[in-house]
Structures are given as structure tokens and as C-alpha cells.
Amino acid sequence: MTMSDATRSSAYDALTQDLTRRGVDVATVERSLRQQRIETPSWAYGNSGTRFRVFSQPGVPRTPFEKFADAAEVHRLTGVCPSVAIHIPWDRVDDFGALRDYATSMGLTVGAINPNLFQDDAYRLGSLCHPDPAVRRQATEHLLACNAIARGVGSDLISLWLADGTNYAGQDSFIERRHRLIDALREPYADLRDGQRLLVEYKFFEPAFYHTDLADWGMALTLCQKLGPRAEVLVDLGHHAQGVNVEQIVALLIDEERLGGFHFNSRKYADDDLIVGSTNPFELFLIYVELVAAGAAATDRIAYMIDQSFNVESKIEGMLLSVTNLQEALARALLVDRPALVDAQRGSDVLGAHRVLLDAFQTDVRPLTAKVRLDLGGEADPIGTFRASGYADRVATERADGTAMSWT
Amino acid sequence: MTMSDATRSSAYDALTQDLTRRGVDVATVERSLRQQRIETPSWAYGNSGTRFRVFSQPGVPRTPFEKFADAAEVHRLTGVCPSVAIHIPWDRVDDFGALRDYATSMGLTVGAINPNLFQDDAYRLGSLCHPDPAVRRQATEHLLACNAIARGVGSDLISLWLADGTNYAGQDSFIERRHRLIDALREPYADLRDGQRLLVEYKFFEPAFYHTDLADWGMALTLCQKLGPRAEVLVDLGHHAQGVNVEQIVALLIDEERLGGFHFNSRKYADDDLIVGSTNPFELFLIYVELVAAGAAATDRIAYMIDQSFNVESKIEGMLLSVTNLQEALARALLVDRPALVDAQRGSDVLGAHRVLLDAFQTDVRPLTAKVRLDLGGEADPIGTFRASGYADRVATERADGTAMSWT
Amino acid sequence: MTMSDATRSSAYDALTQDLTRRGVDVATVERSLRQQRIETPSWAYGNSGTRFRVFSQPGVPRTPFEKFADAAEVHRLTGVCPSVAIHIPWDRVDDFGALRDYATSMGLTVGAINPNLFQDDAYRLGSLCHPDPAVRRQATEHLLACNAIARGVGSDLISLWLADGTNYAGQDSFIERRHRLIDALREPYADLRDGQRLLVEYKFFEPAFYHTDLADWGMALTLCQKLGPRAEVLVDLGHHAQGVNVEQIVALLIDEERLGGFHFNSRKYADDDLIVGSTNPFELFLIYVELVAAGAAATDRIAYMIDQSFNVESKIEGMLLSVTNLQEALARALLVDRPALVDAQRGSDVLGAHRVLLDAFQTDVRPLTAKVRLDLGGEADPIGTFRASGYADRVATERADGTAMSWT
Amino acid sequence: MTMSDATRSSAYDALTQDLTRRGVDVATVERSLRQQRIETPSWAYGNSGTRFRVFSQPGVPRTPFEKFADAAEVHRLTGVCPSVAIHIPWDRVDDFGALRDYATSMGLTVGAINPNLFQDDAYRLGSLCHPDPAVRRQATEHLLACNAIARGVGSDLISLWLADGTNYAGQDSFIERRHRLIDALREPYADLRDGQRLLVEYKFFEPAFYHTDLADWGMALTLCQKLGPRAEVLVDLGHHAQGVNVEQIVALLIDEERLGGFHFNSRKYADDDLIVGSTNPFELFLIYVELVAAGAAATDRIAYMIDQSFNVESKIEGMLLSVTNLQEALARALLVDRPALVDAQRGSDVLGAHRVLLDAFQTDVRPLTAKVRLDLGGEADPIGTFRASGYADRVATERADGTAMSWT
């Protein structure tokens, strides 16, 4: 939907008048929206797919530098994506200082460092949990190397997804693996410097199909408790069993002071890695309602990161839509009438309380998020502007030769 | 959220101007909204609960007549709920003609007749599928009696939910039960008059926990194929396994010319019977997108019925919210830019097509549905008006004595 | 399947010879089987059902004393069920000393005390988490009363299932409810005497359908951590999301030294409360494999309790089958060739390790468990003996008058 | 577990005596077991994995011929696997006559032909359902080519898995895609010769994550109804939503005379493609109980095929275990006391009927299946014999050079 500047301005005026009438302090809402930050992952700019096929797309980056160029385009259009998560070894370069400088030159920083403990041949039966101490040592060394890379690029986050698990009952001992994991993490944990944090991600299943060593938030949390305060839990929205109330887990991890960050995406079935908000935008809104309720606890330390796979759709457009979905989710959450909500909750007015959320959710916040993007130097209509910009055609030509990057 | 008439009028003007700019024919949309009909179920006005507890609420009807009085209040406030489904024997009265006349006097009609094949002691191991022919005969007789009641109250719908199933592997034969079911339904089916239809509901599980004789849409459809054209499938939104794409089933049943009706509600886990749209309003919108796409196929013959349990919330308010949620879902679906959608689909523009739906979904349609309710003689703010009306207090007093109706 | 004594003896000889050949120390296995204890719940002897119907059965107890009589029959036939869990207020009697004495006279003891925090009208929106402090106080008082009852009947276990939760997003605050819960439990926790323990049960959903305050093991565990060492987690096999690896959770809770007990049952869909082992006996075996692996950690303090609903089948027969299923699961787990398993696991022999479990699981252990029951004074064929005994007919006659007990 | 001949013989004698005592006609059971046939898939001998990693194993075939060599080893050891399904283009060879001759020389035949409609770049948004008629034509041509290959290699089965679907709501029209699919299949269907059949597989999700065009058995069945009697449904055990009662679907498709075949595997979460029977052997048994009950309907025309991925375990050993699991499942199902089962079912003896199944399931049938394998020229202990044979080491050496085959 394209819209003239005059139309947009008029829509913004109508919305803000309505919000003001409803008692919303629009200036405060806009300030919060301007402070929102979303980290995009380098790997989402590369090719991805399912076990059945990775379809190539034209213009896909051939180097980590080109991934940062695409990420910079996303930041340019949205204004809220100044950092880029990298994955080692997919984004290994000879000179990480050069990567950091390139990022800086594009107005970006290097975000979370994501170690890879699942693709080396040695890891067929696990990495940090593997029965063979030599394999565990290899995994530990990789984590130490990632700590060093983090320091080199100025990142304070190590984001660990442990793919370890088993496929058959009896294949290995749950408890021995757990103890191996705790032991193997002590050295990389101790190696963290002040300000550095280890984010521990859990996942219900895949690539292991009988058990996963860190299968739910409880397993991640108890591991973090054993490691120490620099270890925190990372919530990937697609890593739960069907029906799990994710917003409750988010609230509870904040209450435990152990919510380290998010991997945003959405799913209908398993870990589908679809565009965040595309299957149930109400659930995404509810997660942001918890984050807004937590106030400062949710803004200073939590890493808001996207982790998606654009298998069949344009990658940059998919990222732009993800970012605007996240902006809209936050915007709606900021409109929740907190005093009315608390009154209804304390007064046992079930539907009254629910309807306070509905009032916020049903509001069409797009004029507000468009305005905030413009304030930040981005675009009112990022996807429309991107389509009109010729960027996709240009990189398709520039990057026609060479090998597009993917997960391998 | 209460709103002055002037504010509402101004919001309506702003919305319709925006829609007109987007190419929407607002008059046509409003006409479709005025034609929407939603049947409310008598039993939702009575007490309900879980196996652990049925909590009583004040003012709950003590007779089927009082249920119709509450339903009339819902229709008065919304303008789109002129019929009421009844359940036999819960709503059995000595004189169904009197019930029909009472309904008429309230501006209502009697909707679908819902036979009960799950509460008689004889039905412990099934009804139409029971191994004992005497029990099957009892169930068949009940269906025949319901056919007669339907004719007596002027209803053309029998809405059959078959709770039959087993709890343990081996308890009974899937296939013998299937054949018993088909045989037992032949007589009640043959007894249907011109214009009468038998709606066959399926359900994934509960109250049976190993197998359910009609567990999914395929089992209901193949049964209907065997019975004849007056048998059609009823889709209850809460009767599917986790993750099932319900809108696809809706589209496919329309394509098979066998979609007979809906039982609207929502669920996060099992057959939770929550307020429709309360867990994933986007999914409800997508169902309506299919219905709107099907055009006439979806308006003339499909029975749009609510089937919910207001266990912890006010029943009439819960019904009002359900109705407005359904109005808003339809309104959003009517705003979908069909030519743009078709263009994007045929042009393999994945995100372009998806965003056409998002544009419609994100629109705040509440001014439009409020206007339509007013056009129909209802209220802009049904719940607010209801709360202010004193109805709840009045019936709480009037109905203080006697026994509130529930599922038994 | 009935079997002559000679046939049974010959089957036992063949089995034990085969086991001895495989290196199994049969005497040790039998000793472990003789030490197995399974607590049956009083409420399973009463009528139960779904929200749609509670079907009555003949001969159902009319008093807590008659429940103990049925439980004594189960113990008499199996030899491993000497304790009976009770539920307050369902099993409230004027004189708990008399109940204790009656139990003793039947060779039984009173097991876990199960407080009821979900059926009082006050608990419509929760109990210990309720927004109203008066309701929370009522719930706390009930827990204190249950502590006293426990002491009066000589039980050291309070088994708390908290049904609290909400049905709609926004209905209440996750975190405020959590804090209310922790606060409300402090006094009953402090009231526990030496040797008494509080078992905290979690449940995925039902009766609440949006969120449950203790929805998974992580929520129960973090609560126990806050309360202290006398609070432990109770695992009900039917209280998990689909696909959850329950045996892993069991192992992990033992490793955390917080596994307090089980509620055994089985499920295919939700909390179906079917006979334990009836939907996936391999999963039940795997749980026992973890318990056997944990050795002493799993025998001294863990409460092994059944929690089931025999909705359509004979209650006492269903209980007998449950108990024999549990005996067989333990027997199979005791046959696992641990040295071979460890060798295969450490040697990364995936299928070798898995097949060690299969070897144990596929063994027909029924001659062994029959022998153990006889050793304990029970019966080789408990259900056959029960059917032949006339007990069912006798109590059907004796208990023909009066009101059968159920969940209310 | 290795076992001497004498021990095995003695175990067989003990078992058959026991079975005879229970009224089982052992000779008939053995005859049925000798008639069992299981088709193994060529692709399972090649490397496989998840989207995260395909781990290579030593000795993996480099050509379709080498896959047949491995399959011949499986047949040699088990006696029941004389045919091998192939996948086009993975198994495309210049001269299919040569492949057929090679198969014959190994005692094998070529089984079902599996077209690939998911890996060509053209298929990113679908194949037979694609919006572009040129892509649909390409897919149709591939099916026609597969028909020709089938005739060339003497196979009468085309086994079609359609991966088509969409990732985002609105991406394409459910109904237009359905009509495209029906239209595109008419020509390949009409091209089938007498005796040839088209097996239509359904799958809940993956690789598409919003909707799958053939997502459940109902969608496959209604498609087959439209095509004609040579189209039948294929049931892959891993292609259902959580909790779905697969044995009921099997029974129902037989009743509809549309069950064409199986893809055997097992799953705990999604389409995990694990060794059949490894997560719930009781469920596999129940499927065979239905097949045995269907008698001739289940033996003549149904294709029993394995479809698995041995990602972390030895591929040939995994196949051997799969085959013996299937033999044991059938053996147990053949032991069900049908007259007793029918008596109990018709007499409403819930637990009596269930226990008839338990009696069969709990029987240790391994001596019986070992005997049958020996009768057929196979091995009592296929995996033990294979491990001792040196085959794995030999092919690891022989196939050290060149590229191992996998899914691409």
C-alpha cells in the first residue's frame, strides 16, 4: 500500500488525536519506539532452506561483508537495526578488525557471536555433551575462540545454541551428558570478561529427535544457575512445544532476572523460522505487553535479535517486514492502558481486562511506526521504498558471479 | 472504551475516507456486514465448566425461555443474532410451539436442533456406534425425535455432534463401529424433509481418549458422502489437532460443496471453548478470508453458529464480545484487496500477497462494525451499553430462586 | 489369560533360566520388585468422568472407608499397594483417627494428603494466586488444615496440585500471581514438620485455558527453590505438552535432587488420566530405566502414586491393571544390561545402546511379576482372581443404596 | 544379544508350546510371517541428515547399483526385503534395463518409483500446484517420465509425495492450487497401464510451513476419488499431527478400499524419519492389528515400504533393525486371540478386550521371527551376523573414493 505524504500525515494526525483522547502520552510512546533496537542476523541474508532443498536467490551475498551491506540497507530503511549477529565459522574472515571497520563505516556494529557446534563431522553425536572428551574439548576451544572474536569485534554477547541430543532411547545418558555440558562450559564461562554475557538458547527438538540436551527454558535456566550470573536464557519463539504460553515464560525469566535475549521468528508447526508475527501477531503483541510491563528490566540488557530463514521469499524484504512487524507489536503494547488493566485485574473483571489488551491490539499503529522510522532517518514505507530503489537488481548483477553464502 | 457519538462519527468518517482512497467500496462492505448472521447457542447462557468444577454465576437462566430472553438481549445489542440453537434434552419443553412463539415474540427464531447422544447412562460406550443394537436404536429414536422437534419449531438444521469413541486400544472395532454408525444414520437421514439438513460435526478427542469415531473432517466427509447430499460437515474451530490449518479445511469443504456450518470458539490447547478470536484473531480473519473468497457459496447455506463456554466470565458479555469479534473478522476480510491479491499470487510475489492480507487485517474496523450495528438497530458499544443497562442486576434478582440451567 | 499353576511355574523356570544365561541376577531383580510400592488414590475408586458426563458404576464406594476397602482389595491381590492417597474435602471424615485405624485394620496406611484448591466457589479465578487476599487466605488456611490432617493420619506428604490459571490474555498478571503464590505458600511450608514434604505438581493446561500458574516442571522447580528443601516437584505423566520427553525431565529432577513423586497415568491427547502404560508402554519403561539408573536416589524418597480416572471401565480392575503395568515396567527396566549399555554409550554405538534397552523391553516379564506377587501374598493373576472372587457383585449389592462418591 | 543355536531352539520350543497352549495355530502364524514383504528405499542407504547437517558415513554407496548391493545384503539377512524403491532423479541411470538386470542378479526387483517434485529450482513455490502453468507442465512431464521408467524396470507403483505448499497466509489460493493439482494429475493418471497404481502420500507439514496442499488423509483421499480407482492413499507414519490415531486412519482407508501402501518410520516430534517402532512399538503393533484384521484386503495390494533416514546410526544396521521391528510387530498382531477379542468387544468388556491385545503385545516373539528368517534363508540374528560379516569394513574400503550418494 503506497500512500502520499499528505495522506500519511493526515492518518498520523487522526491517530494521535484519537490516542490523546484515550489518554495516551504519544510523545512517550514515540520515544520508546525510537529506542527500540533489533539485531538482524548475517545468516538470514544468505541462502537457506529445508533438509529437502536450499533454493538459491539472485543477489545473495558472497561474503560476510556483503551481508553487512544488506543489513545496512535494512538499517537505512528502518532506523532500528544497527547491529548484526554473526555466526562462526560461516562469517569467519581473515581479519575481524576489517569486518568491524566495515560495519562501522556502514553505521553498524557487530552483534552477538554465534558459535557453531553442530556442523563439524566430529559433532555427529554431540559437541559439549559428546561421550568423547576430545570432541568436548574441540567444542570448548571453539567457544573460547568465539569469546576472543567477540572481544575483537567489540561484541559483549555470545549466543549459544546447543544442538546436542540423541535420536534413540538409550543412545546416551541424560545425566552424564548434562554433567559433561556443565563441566565443558565452565572454562568458556570463566573466560568471559566484565560486560560479556553468555546467552543459552533452548530448543524443543531438531536436529535431535529423541531428546535434546537443552530442550526447554527450565533446562537452560538450571544450567545458567550453575554457571553464574553472566549466563542468561535466550528465548527463540519457535523452540517450544505446541501450545506453550511463551509470553508467560518471558515474564517468568525476567522475574528470575535471567532473560538474556530473543531470537524472533514465528512458527505454525515446528521451528519454521518464518517472519516474526506472520502466524499469530496477537501472540507477538502479548510478548511485548510483558516486556513493556517489565519496564527497565526489559530494555537495558535484553538482546532483541531476529533469527529467521527466508526460504521462498525475498530476503531483504522479508527482513524489512519482520522489523516493521516488531515495531508494530511494540507500538501496540505501548498503547495498553495500564491503569485500566490493573483496575480490571484487581477487580476480577475478566473481560474488562482482556478488552484493555484488545483495544491496544486493534489499533492501527502503522501511522505511528511510520512516523518513528522517519524520525530516525528511515522510511515510512521500507518495503515500497526498497522495491523502488533498484537495490535488489543492482546486487543481483554485482553478485552474479561467485558463490552465494548459505548455512555451510 | 467508551466514546462519544461525535468521536465515533469522526472515526467512521476518517476510516471510510481512508478505505475509499484504498479503493474499497464501503457501501458494499457495509451491506455484507449487515447481512452477517450469527446463531447463539442456548447452552452458553447456562452454567458451564470443566470436569473439575462448574462455577455458578448469578442471573443464569432457569428455563429455556429465559435463555431466549438473554439471547434476545444479545440480538438487541448487536443486530445480527436472530436465531438460537437448542439442545435436546437440555432445552426440552412440554410445548415446543410455545417456545417457538416466545422466540418470535422476542424477534428470534429457533435455530439448529442439537441432539444429545452422550449423557444417557446407556451411552457409556457409545451411542450410534455402540456394540449393543438396543442402544443404537435408542440413539436413532432420539434423532428422529429431534427431526420432529425441528419441524415443530421451524428449524431446518440438525446439528449432530457424535461423542462416540473408545478409551483403550482394542476396546472396540473401528470398522464395525463405522458400519454401525452409517447404518444407524440411514433412517434419521431419510426422515429429513426438503430443506432440512444434517450437519455432522467432527472432533479430535474428548470425551473419548483413545479414538473418536468422527475424529477429523475426512471421517465426517466420507460419512456424508455415504448418506447423501443433505448431510454436510460442521467445523468447530476447537476440534482439531494442534497446528492444523483450519482455513484450508474450510476452503476445501466449500470446494467439495459439503461445508454445512461452523461452531465458532477458540482454543489454545484442546477444545477450550473460549471466546472466538481470543487466542489468534489472525486465524479467525483467515477463515473469513476464505469465506469471502467463496462468495455466494459461503452465504446462503452455511450456518454460522457460536459454541462456547463462559466458565469464568460474564456469559452475556462474553457472547457480545464473541459477536463483535466475528463482525470485525468479517469486516477485515471484506477489506482484502482481491485484485491485488490475485495479481501477487499469480506473479509469485510471496510477500506482496501476504501483505495484501496484512493491510486488511491491520485496519481498525471498529468504527465500521459499530456503524453497521447502529444501522441494524443495535448498539455501537454493545458491552458498554449492556453494562450500563442494569440487565445483569435485574436478572440476578429475578432469577435468584430456582435452579440455574447447565449442561445436565 | 488364565494359566494353571504348573504352566506358570514352567514359564517362570524358562524365563529365569534365560535371564540367568543373559547374566541377570534374578534374585536381585526379584528383591527390587518386592520392594516396589505404589500408592493408589482414594478418588479413583469413586465415580469420575469428563465435563460431558460422569457415568455411574455399580458398587462404587459411598464413604472414604469403603474406598479404603476397595484399596485393600487391590493391595491384597497385588501385594505392593499398602498406602492410599486421600483428597480433602472429598475424603473428609469427622474422625480422621478412625479412618487411620480402619486403614491399619485393613493393612493399609494413609498416604499423601491432596488439598483441593479448585472447587470452592471462591476459587473461580484462582486460589493461592487469586487477586483477592481473602481468597488467598482461605486457600492458605486449607493447606494448613491439610498439614494438620496429615499429622493426624500419620502421613508425611502434602501433594499440591494448583489448578490456578487464567482463560484470557490480560485477565491477570503472570508475575503478580507468581509473587502471590510464593508468599501464600510460605506459611504452610513453614508449618511442615521434620520428615514432611510438600510435593508441587505442575500441569500444562486445564482447567485454565490461557495460562496455568504452574505449567511446567521449570515453574514448579523454581517455586520449590524459593520455598526450601522440603518442597519437591511431582511429575504427573499426563501433564505435559505433546512430544515432551518425560523421562528426561524425571532424570533431571533427580539430578537436581527435587523429584518428589509421580502421579502415574497415561494419555494420548491431553490429561486423559487413562491406565498407566496403556498408550505407550515403551515410554513408561524408559521412565523406569531412569529410576533404576538413579538407584537409591529413586527408591527412598520418591512417592509412586497413581492418579487416574476409570470413566468407562471397572475401577478396581483398572487399578489392578495399572499396578501390574507398573510392575512389568519396573521388571523390564531391572533387566537392562547396564554394563553393556554403558559400553555402547561410551563407544558411540548408537544402535547397540538402543538395542540393550530393546532386549529388556521385549522380554516377557509376566512370569517374574506373577512370582513376586505370590511372594508378597498377592495373586499371580490379580484381575482373573478378582473376577472370580465375587467382590464386585458383593459390593454392588451392599452399596446399592446411598450415594456413590465422586469428585464433588 | 547373541545366542547359541541350542538356546535359540529351546526358546523357540518353549514359545511355541506356550502359544499352542493359548490356542494359537503356530503353523499359520509362521506362514503369514513368511509371506511378509518389506520394501527398502534406495535413498536410505545414502547419506541423509537435517537442514543443519548431513553427516557422512564410511562405505556409503556411490551409485544406485551400490545401493542395490546394500539392499541385497539386507534381504539376504532377513529374507523379506526383495524389492527396492527408487527415487528419480537420485537413482537415474543411463540404462534402467541394466539396473533391473543387476537387481535381478541380486535376487531383487525394483519397487516403487518415487518422482521428485521438490528439488528443481523451478519448484520453489510448488510443482503441480504452482501458479505458473509452465512449471506445472514440467512436473507433469516428470511424472510421465517416471511412468515410463516404472514400465521399464517392471514396477507397478508410482509413489508420489507432493511437497507443495505455502509459507505465508495469502501466498496463494488453496482452491486454485487444488484445481491445478487435479488437472495436472489427469494426464499421468491416464497414462497408467493396467496393474499400475499411483500412491498419493500426504504430509502434515514440511517443507512448507503455512499450508501443505496434501496435508492429511482426507485431502489425499478426495484427490484419489477424483482421479479414479488406480489412485490410492499412502500412509507415512511420520506425517501426522501430534496425537493422531494412525491405526484408525489405516483401518478406515482399507474400509474405503483406498489404502495403497505405507512409508514406515517413527517419530516423536515431526517427520523425524527414525527407525520404525523405536518411539512407540505399541502403536506399530496396533497398526498391524488392523492389517491382520483386514485379512486379504491388507496383503495383496498394499505396498509395505520403509522410508527412513539413518542420520547418526549405521545405515544397514538401522535397516535391519527396522525390518526385524516390523516382523515382530506383525508376529505379535498375529497372536491376537480374535475370538476372545470379538467376544469382549461385543460384551462391552472394555478391559477384557484391551487385555487381549496386551497378551499378544507382551509376548516375546523373537524366537518366532528368528525361526521364520531362518526358514527364508536369512539369519536368526541379522545385526549380529552383519557385524560379524565384515561387510561394513569391506565396503568402507571399496567405496573410499568417489562421492557418496545423498539426497541431492
What does this protein look like?
Chain A is an alpha/beta fold and 408 residues long. Chain A has one domain (36-334, 378-398): TIM Barrel, CATH 3.20.20. Chain A has helices at residues 5-21, 26-35, 64-78, 96-105, 133-153, 174-190, 217-227, 246-255, 281-294, 315-334, 338-346, 350-362, 366-375, 382-389, 391-398, and strands at 40-41, 83-88, 109-115, 157-161, 165-166, 197-201, 211-212, 231-236, 259-264, 303-306. In chain A, the strands form three sheets. In chain A, strands 4-6-8-9-10 form a five-stranded parallel beta sheet. Chain A is globular and about 65 Å long. The model of chain A has no long low-confidence stretch (mean pLDDT 96). The C-D interface holds C 1, 7, 11, 14, 18, 21-22, 242-243, 245, 268-269, 278-283, 312-314, 317-318, 321, 328, 350-351, 354-355, 359, 361-364, 366, 383 and D 1, 7, 11, 14, 18, 21-22, 242-243, 245, 268-269, 278-283, 312-314, 317-318, 321, 328, 350-351, 354-355, 359, 361-364, 366, 383. Chains A, B, C, D: InterPro entries: L-rhamnose_isomerase (IPR050337), Rhamnose_iso-rel (IPR013457), Xyl_isomerase-like_sf (IPR036237), Xyl_isomerase-like_TIM-brl (IPR013022). Chains A, B, C, D: This is L-rhamnose isomerase. Chains A, B, C, D: Its EC number is 5.3.1.14. Chains A, B, C, D: Keywords: Isomerase, Manganese, Metal-binding. Chains A, B, C, D: GO terms for molecular function: L-rhamnose isomerase activity; metal ion binding.
